[in-house]
Automatic annotation (TrEMBL):
The keyword Iron applies. This is Hemoglobin-like flavoprotein. Pfam families: Globin (PF00042). Signal peptide: none annotated. Keywords: Heme, Iron, Metal-binding, Oxygen transport, Transport. Belongs to the globin family. It comes from Solirubrobacter pauli. GO terms for molecular function: FAD binding; heme binding; metal ion binding; nitric oxide dioxygenase NAD(P)H activity; oxygen binding; oxygen carrier activity. Residues 1-132 form the Globin domain.
């Protein structure tokens, strides 16, 4: 992973973090309206805060991603309870990266998008491992 690109691009959008997560959820519900019912009983203000906190944690953990693995697995397991499906992860990743690019504007480069696509693939993979473990536990 291009850690410098990830850190630099995140630092571009971080000052507008609240706007970023607001834009993300707006775009997510426009792009994938089928996921909106998953948030029917969700306090969206709190949800936006939690997403921003998760992104900040990821930014802080980039140089030691192994330290974030347990948290990401737990997050994946919790998403099973919410009804998240594997197919949702790609939509969420693309929407988040698109929102970051929009917030960064002309400062965003293709290298940033590529770095985040790779990073989100890793994050989603770990979360899906946690989701699979949770589904096995439910089935048992």
């Amino acid at each position: 992973m291009d850690l410098n690109a990830l850190e630099t691009s995140f630092d571009l959008v971080a000052p507008r973090g609240e706007e970023l997560v607001e834009l993300f959820y707006t775009r997510l519900f426009e792009t994938a309206p089928a996921v909106q019912p998953l948030f029917a009983h969700t306090d969206m203000a709190r949800q936006r805060q939690m997403l921003l906190a998760a992104l900040v944690l990821l930014r802080r953990s980039l140089r030691d991603l192994d330290a974030a693995v347990p948290t990401l697995r737990r997050l994946g397991a919790r998403h099973v309870e919410y009804g998240a499906e594997e197919a949702h992860y790609a939509v969420v990743g693309a929407t988040l990266i698109g929102a970051m690019a929009e917030i960064a504007g002309e400062a965003w480069t293709p290298a940033y998008g590529e770095a985040w696509t790779e990073a989100f693939g890793v994050v989603a993979g770990v979360m899906l491992e946690g989701a699979a473990e949770a589904q096995l536990a439910i089935a048992a």
